[in-house]
Amino acid sequence: MHEIANLVHKQLEDAQVRALVSLNLTDDKKYVLGIELRGRVAGFSREETYALMHAAHAVCPYSNATRENIEVTIVAESASEGEKA
Description:
Blueprint: H1 2-7, E1 15-25, E2 31-41, H2 46-59, H3 61-66, E3 71-76
Parallel strand pairs: 2-3
Antiparallel strand pairs: 1-2
InterPro entries: KH_dom-like_a/b, OHR, OsmC/Ohrsf
Protein name: Organic hydroperoxide resistance protein
Organism: Labilithrix luteola
């Protein structure tokens, strides 16, 4: 994430990302994984945090390996308010 933050010319001082994993049952009775990535970055707005997380997700090797196999939801939270974007 540090490389991406440097692209937007902001220093990352405190970044937190949590991954919540769920096991879901499809209509055809198959089990699939779902991931919700929740992140907050000190000094970044929710919109900036979302953009940063989305950019990181686009280049992450784990995301690339599982793309279209696992549904991923990105949720940005305000570092000061805990609100979602």
